[in-house]
Amino acid sequence: MADVLLEVNHLQTQFREGKTKRITAINDVTFQIRKGEIVGLVGESGCGKSVTSLSIMRLLQDTAGEITNGSVLLNGKNLLTLSEKEIKRVQGKQISMIFQEPMTSLDPVLRIKKQMLEEIQLHMNLTKEKALEHAADMLKMVGIPDVAQTLESYPFQLSGGMCQRVMIAMAMSCYPDLLIADEPTTALDVTIQAQILDLMRELNRKNGMSILLITHDLGVVAETCSRVIVMYAGRIVEQADVQTLFQNPRHPYTRGLLACLPRIGRRVESLPSIPGTVPSLNEMPEGCKFAPRCRLATDLCREKEPELRDVEGCEGCQVRCWLAGQKEAKEALK
Length: 334
Prior knowledge:
The chain has 13 helices and 12 strands. The protein is an alpha/beta fold. Strand 4 and strand 5 form a beta hairpin. Helix 4 (112-124) packs across helix 5 (128-141) and helix 5 (128-141) crosses helix 7. The longest helix has 18 residues, at 190-207.
């Protein structure tokens, strides 16, 4: 497809444990992001969202992680086959990322000015003076009041929320084709959260920047994204457009996530929850990985893992469930 910007095919990432053991963190992850599209990636902590983003960005080199299968195509070019020198030209310019932990992502011994100028000058071919002006403009756009002082500061002199805004400004400063935002508003107050999301949507509209938004906040997904990917235990279990997913979720896990949302006008003593926890990477169950927590699980579910399959009559919709589409299952999950 001509309008596909990012194409992830059968991606598998494993982590080394000891000399011989390997643990699979994400397995057979396949999805696409079109040009100008905002896609939400949701799921509980530990389901593989951040590892997926780091794998796409090729940022696992200095860790125990290794991509062991699949491809990541950006504008038709496989990022996994690029040399270190070639991937450096892509990172920050064509594809950029807002990290979940800003305090550990910024260099503690370099001033903010130095860190921002390095990337802007590398990718935008600006003079130091013009690059500094651009850096100041980006900091203003993310709501930093005293830009001059912030540029001269070290990360440890700023609060967590300020560091997060600096990270967002750095990630968007070169207007990448694809922005991966891993919980971009976690450390920010509600007013700044709304401002940052508005800025991301504005850059999406004006520059056609595609966004992969990783978040726990389904309200943000409903308001911001056009399509949603749901992950569980390192696998995609469902993907659909936002309206379809919220109105007619097909996977029991997706239905459980939506049932946990508080709703205006509904009084309850306690919010619903999904029983159990995400399985450990060391102790993955046989069959469907969600079966131990699913009240509809059958012997087939516990014995054999379903494939991610297309949903009939719903373009772009996929689900990984033996029971999806069965009328009895839909009624039981209401």
